[in-house]
Predict the structure.
Amino acid sequence: MIDRAVRAEGLDDFGGDHWRAPFAILIAALREEAALNSVGRTLAFGQLVKVLRERLRAQALWQAHPEILERPIVAPIVVLGSMRSGTTRIQRLLACDEGFAHTRLFESLSPVPEAGPASVDLRVIKASAGLAFLHALNPALAAIHPSSARSPEEEFGLFSFAFSGAQFQAQWRTPGFARWWEGADVVPVYREFRRLLQTIGWSRGQRADAPWMLKAPQFLEELDALLTVFPDARLLCLGRDAVDVVGSSCSLVWQQQRIQSDAADRHWIGREWLHKTVRRVGAARAVRLAHPEVPQLDIAYAAMDRDWRHEIARIYDFLGLELTPATMRRMERFLSGSKAHRGHRYQIEEFGLSAGEVRRLLPAGA
């Protein structure tokens, strides 16, 4: 894979060696634990070579344009919450405000620009084709998490850049890889994450003072590292009933893993993602308590269901920003056309779990 990437790009600087240990551990987990089928092996090979090529292009770009890494990122707005806790809804509503910077799916998948015609962004074409292929393999994914190449999206791909992130763990059964990351220092990952945000902003010609809006479930377990790199971050903290969070998370992971492994196991997924949710929620609570100086606003999933306009107004008050009528109209149009979660059905018992067990481990929700 490394040789393939070097030949394809004609470059050989991957930017240090900190990525090599997790890369090797991920490869071992894919070989020994993931039980990939032919589709899974093909997708994994292509996906990992793509990450390596992104690393090569990024280093070359930063050397050619060192000004990219001088771009400020001031007081980012961090949407903090478990998978399936309503973070996507908040992110996409706030993305209706043209004053915020946010990552789009094609940028999360490919944060570094590619050479090509000035009028065509090849990343958009590739992201659209990849999404269509994924939905053709399993149409259920479109109901669970509707998206498009230009939709606002969480920054999962920016963490894959360092062979970190929940994207890999949700796709493949790789417990050895997951346990290794639980004990690893992730501050270098977040320093690279910052560089990639700077790169996205530079490549789209975005004004440097636009506040970034960030969203990824792994922020919960890595909040300490995030605040180390972004000490002026402002937190929008989403909460939802723990049974719904765990059940919906397991359903999403199952729908992803069963494409790439004929041995995908619902009960294993249930245990693994209950463990992850408990770990993430506990870690975030501890860091939030330890840093009362960090601006934090709690938002309940149920409150958003009851009166989303009121909750959005609370968010703007918290941020000290004006919620304009034009932004509100765009939010209303987005929600009127949203197909999120329609047709998504699951039962937590399918994953070998019970509501009582989940609530014992997550008594205050997730």
